[in-house]
Amino acid sequence: MGAPPGYRPSAWVHLLHQLPRADFQLRPVPSGFAPQEREYQQALLLVAALAGLGLGLSLVFIAVYLIRFCCCRPPEPPGAKSPPPGGGCVTWSCIAALLVGCAGIGIGFYGNSETSDGVSQLSSALLHANHTLSAIDHLVLETVERLGEAVRAELTTLEEVLAQRTELVAAARGARRQAEAVAQQLQELAFWRGVPLSPLQVAEDVSFVEEYRWLAYVLLLLLELLVCLFTLLGLAKQSKWLVIVMTVMSLLVLILSWGSMGLEAATAVGLSDFCSSPDTYILNLTQEETGLSSDILNYYFLCNQAVSNPFQQRLTLSQRALASIHSQLQGLEREAVPQFPSAQKPLLSLEETLNVTEGNFHQLVALLHCRGLHKDYGAALRGLCEDALEGLLFLLLFSLLSAGALATALCSLPRAWALFPPRNPSASCSGSHLSEPLLHAGLEPVPPPRSFPGCRRRPH
Fold it and tell me: What average pLDDT does the chain have?
């Protein structure tokens, strides 16, 4: 099958498509895109479940590390005032992890934007295809109505005017039959009329889902950014309550990061299977949803020399019929108008209708050619299989960096805030006498320092 113009499966599509798949019983599953099959669904769920396994292992590791830190610390000797060795390394490792998380947030914003651009390209291609199909239906309807009106009005009037000449009446009736035949042929060209599948509805549904997906990722990225920034602020200010709150928030964002990683991985694998060979699945799905013949669908989805135009015969017959009507009207104008002047008005009206019909016919020929719809098909595939898939991979990298950074921070934060100096309420007492202004030498005697509640003066 021929690929759409400008679309070739990328290296990422080939790489992800080659990954092994298995169902819940760990039996191998073919990598062909088959979302309706139970085994394939289980394979994608198993890919998503790997992220759940990673989350479980991360939580177990963090819990073991914190339990060991809390319960297995050697007792500090009495009177020890210096912080335990390695405290600075713990703080700096936590800061480095948070900075890596911030870099991952930047990657996530880029990936979210790329995914949105790909889906927007898909929606635009669907809307353009819907415009083409609607234009075909409109042109066919307009042309058929014009021909029908000409048959009912002008040709009937012309037959009445030429009733005295049998051969002229026969020519007018021949033009009537040709016009009716053209109308019948043109009605068959509106192949999308009455089809339940609407590209416009699909584009609206895709845009609706993408809008909420984009917003959800933006909120997740902003939440992690706030957690990283406030955690760095808590470490800089040595605020225990702020660090504790951010530790709880980091645990929440860690769970969300692993969850998004599972969703992204399963979507990327399924999308790679679809993009490796999209024609077969799209053809079968469209035929099932629309009920159109395989000849029409093959012509528009493949658009190569091996597939003939299914409308070519009807277009040829319509063109010949229009040329025959044109010649018959010219003959009637030469022979009938000198004898029947009243026949000139319906003949001129018929000529105008015929000119409009021929113009619409040439537009139909251009719209019915496979180039336009096939170009939209290629644009939709490029948006979905290039930009959207690339954005998914960047989002997957963001989730991976986020999970690693938050796991490191969750292990480091309790040790970091344990090293914060305690809040000493007597600190204000010890420095109170330094805050008193010095008196000028030789003037008043120094008054005794003021005492604060709960503080005793220490002997000098």
Answer: 85
Q: What is the pLDDT of residue 424?
A: 54
d(CA 133, CA 136): 5
Residue 369: Cβ within 10 Å count = 15
Burial 63-80 (b: 16+ CB within 10 A, else e): eebeeeeeeeeeeeeeee
Residue 200 and residue 204: Cα distance in Å, rounded?
Answer: 6
User: Which pLDDT score, from 0 to 100, does residue 50 have?
Assistant: 93
Task: Determine how many CB atoms are found less than 10 A away from the CB of residue 456.
Answer: 9
CB atoms within 10 A of CB 386: 22
Read off the pLDDT of each residue in 193-219 and give the average, rounded to a whole number. Answer: 94
Six-digit token pair at 255?
């769970």
Record the tokens describing residue 401, joined without a space.
Answer: 């960096």
Q: Give per-residue pLDDT as tens, 220-252.
A: 999 999 999 999 898 888 888 888 899 999 999
- For the whole model, what pTM was predicted? 0.83
Distance CA 417, CA 399 (A): 26
For 419-458, the pLDDT digits (tens) are 677 665 444 434 433 333 333 333 344 444 444 444 444 4
Radius of gyration from C-alpha coordinates of the chain: 39
pLDDT tens per residue, range 376-415: 999 999 999 999 999 999 999 999 999 999 999 888 887 7
Structure tokens given for 359: 């113009």
The Cα–Cα gap between 84 and 232 comes to: 22
Assign 3-class secondary structure to the chain: CCCCCCCCCCHHHHHHHCCCCECCCCCECCCCCCCCCHHHHHHHHHHHHHHHHHHHHHHHHHHHHHHHHHHCCCCCCCCCCCCCCCHHHHHHHHHHHHHHHHHHHHHHHHHHHHHHHHHHHHHHHHHHHHHHHHHHHHHHHHHHHHHHHHHHCHHHHHHHHCCCCHHHHHHHHHHHHHHHHHHHHHHCCCCCCCCCCCHHHHHHHHHHHHHHHHHHHHHHHHHHHHHHHHHHHHHHHCCHHHHHHHHHHHHHHHHHHHHHHHHHHHHHHHHHHHHHCHHHHHHHHHHHHHCCCHHHHHHHHHCCCCCCCCCHHHHHHHHHHHHHHHHHHHHHHHHHHHHCHHHHHHHHHHHHHHHHHHHHHHHHHHHHCHHHHHHHHHHHHHHHHHHHHHHHHHHHHHHHHHHHHHHHHHHHHHHHHHCCCCCCCCHHHHCCCCCCCCCCCCCCCCCCCCCCCCCCCCCC
From CA 370, how far away is CA 302, in angstroms rounded? 9
